[in-house]
Design brief:
Layout (H helix, E strand, L loop, with lengths): L1 E5 L2 E4 L4 E8 L7 E7 L6 E6 L5 E3 L7 E6 L4 E6 L8 E8 L15 E2 L3 E6 L1
Parallel strand pairs: 2-11
Antiparallel strand pairs: 1-3, 3-8, 4-5, 4-9, 5-6, 7-8, 9-10, 9-11
Length: 124
């Protein structure tokens, strides 16, 4: 199983980006999936999760600006990011745990499959 993120890049504050997480040898249907991020010198933090019943949760810092979604047919997880701020600058990672589809936690180590990350840089 391999998760590969893409879509990162450099953008000015107020801009938008859409991150993708493609799964090979794996499907995102009916399981917990999520996005995390880590800025230099900081701990990895939870951004958003989406469960097997399409229930979503967001960190307060991104609520109202980011949207998590997934396309089960394409085995792809997305993170649409709007109104980006310099403090959103980080490496963004996707993760999945196929054993659970509810109560998806915001804990990186809980997730069985994890990607290598894609860099997002927001300039002021």
């Amino acid at each position: 199983v391999r998760l590969v993120e893409s879509g990162g890049g450099s953008v000015q504050a107020g801009g938008s980006l859409r991150l993708s997480c493609a799964a090979s040898g794996h499907t995102f249907a009916r399981q917990c999936t999520g996005w995390f991020r880590q800025a230099p010198g900081n701990w990895r933090e939870w951004v958003a999760t989406i469960g097997g019943y399409e229930s979503t949760r967001y960190a307060d810092s991104v609520k109202g600006r980011f949207i998590i979604s997934k396309d089960n047919a394409e085995n792809t997880l997305y993170l649409q990011m709007h109104s980006l701020k310099p403090e959103d600058t980080a490496m963004y990672y996707c993760a999945a745990n196929p054993q659970y589809e509810r109560g998806c936690p915001g804990t990186w180590d809980w997730y069985t499959f994890r990607g290598q990350g894609t860099q997002v840089t927001v300039s002021s």
